[in-house]
From TrEMBL:
The UniProt record lists the keyword DNA-binding: no
Protein name, UniProt field: DRTGG domain-containing protein
Keywords: CBS domain
Alphabetized InterPro entries for the sequence: CBS_dom, CBS_dom_sf, Diverse_CBS-Domain, DRTGG, HotDog_dom_sf, Ser_kin/Pase_Hpr-like_N_sf, Thioestr_dom, WH-like_DNA-bd_sf
Length: 435
């Protein structure tokens, strides 16, 4: 049976998109305390089922699929530009397809303005009315108001009419930045992207026996299984080493490992993989916020996902992406890397930033390990010594050298040169992924 928290989440998800909800309303409808209702609404916000807007309230929004995450709802635009909703509140849940800057004649402006778009314009009253009638929302910059007639049209067409104190250029930059940030987020693999869902997950119950484990093992050939109670809450995990030497009639609850390491759906795949390698585990349960089992991931799932991600095109460039594009790899007796310092990787003094240099060194180390047929790796401990600043436009040479290598760990030394002068040294230890 679902808990009250889960029942409230299911109720919120069943509401029509665009409906307003409140703590008091949920508490009354579901017959729970206001504290329980508040926590459930916050969880619904984390799951992107609702969005809370100042002076507007909490609105049920459409849960966006990951492939469409680069699109923003008008409610999110209100938050981004710190705007005030003048009309059309019932359309805040809608998604904008593009934004148009109204810096041209009205007839030219309307050629680019279509249903689902957002017109960003100043106090041009005729443009407000024409855009709304064309099916577009309107964002008024400079803190200007709209006429009562335009507000009435916005309410009638259910298209948001928003006012912000920022100028047009600043607003366009803020929205573009938000879309760009979400493009980067789109590329980050999360556990929800690779999890084996609950309907396909084989699990045992705490009332089962070792004999039940052996039956499942014969049927599925899996080495480990999560263990749940009658409410589908995770209570442990059982693997082959837990049942060795145990009688068939012994309870799973007695042999299982309690409080196993787990992740949630929003954990990054990279973080989960690092934890699995560090802890030496091959299977990890995936839970929701209430501790209910949602599925499992294996080490093989993580490695396949990371290898697949490396082959995907990148839409939003992070600092790491910029560093990689400036690196040139050279094989030989001892591999080395050349790197050009570009403006995007410098600090306020015009020299390479600490973060960019760290990325450069870890990427050079990973390259050297791959060149040494050691496969994928993850940096664990880093010590960097700066000898002199590295100016914009400098071409650096990084020489990685393996000091010590075991099956799971590698210690490496790095020397960084500009022309013939050494400008930095580093020592990094890496964890190795099983090939």
């Amino acid at each position: 049976m679902a808990t009250k928290h889960e029942q409230i989440l299911n109720y919120i998800e069943s509401l029509p998109v665009g409906d307003k909800i409140s703590v008091r309303q949920i508490a009354k409808e579901m017959k729970v305390s206001e504290g329980t209702a508040y926590r459930a609404i916050k969880e619904a916000e984390n799951q992107r089922l609702v969005n809370t807007i100042e002076r507007v309230g909490t609105i049920r929004i459409e849960k966006k699929r990951k492939e469409n995450i680069e699109r923003l709802t008008f409610a999110e635009v209100v938050n981004i530009v710190e705007g005030q909703v003048l009309g059309g509140r019932d359309g805040l849940h809608k998604t904008l397809t593009k934004f148009v800057i109204g810096a041209m004649k009205l007839e030219d402006m309307m050629r680019y303005t279509e249903a689902g778009s957002l017109l960003i314009v100043g106090n041009r009253m005729k443009a407000h009315e024409t855009a709304l009638k064309a099916g577009a929302a309107v964002l008024i910059t400079g803190g200007f108001d709209a006429t009562d007639e335009v507000k009435k049209i916005a309410d009638e067409y259910k298209l948001p009419l928003i006012s912000t104190s920022y100028d047009t250029f600043t607003v366009a930059t803020m929205i573009n930045r938000a879309i760009y940030d979400q493009l980067i987020m789109k590329e980050i693999l999360l556990i929800e992207d690779i999890v084996v869902p609950l309907m396909e997950t084989v699990f045992l119950r705490n009332g089962d026996t070792v004999s039940d484990y052996h039956e499942q093992n014969k049927r599925t050939r899996h080495g480990g299984y999560p263990v749940v109670d009658q409410h589908q809450k995770l209570v442990g995990i059982v693997t082959a080493k837990d049942v060795i030497g145990r009688g068939d009639n012994e309870s799973i609850e007695k042999v299982m490992t309690r409080n196993p390491i787990s992740v949630n759906l929003k954990t990054s795949v990279a973080a989960a993989g690092h934890r699995m390698i560090w802890e030496g585990i091959d299977l990890m349960p995936v839970l929701n916020e209430t501790g209910t089992l949602q599925g499992v991931i294996s080490r093989q799932d993580v490695l396949k996902a990371l290898q697949f991600a490396q082959r995907q095109p990148h839409h939003g460039q992070t600092i790491d992406d910029i560093v990689r594009t400036q690196m040139r790899f050279f094989d030989g007796g001892e591999p080395f890397v050349e790197f050009t310092v570009v403006p995007q990787v410098t600090n306020q003094f015009g020299s390479i930033s600490n973060g960019a240099l760290t990325t450069l060194l870890t990427e050079a180390g990973s390259y050297a390990l791959k060149n040494n047929k050691r496969g994928e790796s993850s940096p664990e401990n880093i010590m960097i010594y700066f000898i002199k600043p590295v100016q914009l436009g400098s071409v650096l040479t990084v020489k990685p050298r393996v000091l010590d290598m075991t099956r799971r760990f590698v210690k490496m030394d790095f020397e960084v040169f500009h022309e013939s002068a050494m400008i930095g040294k580093a020592m990094i230890s890496f964890q190795l992924f099983d090939r």
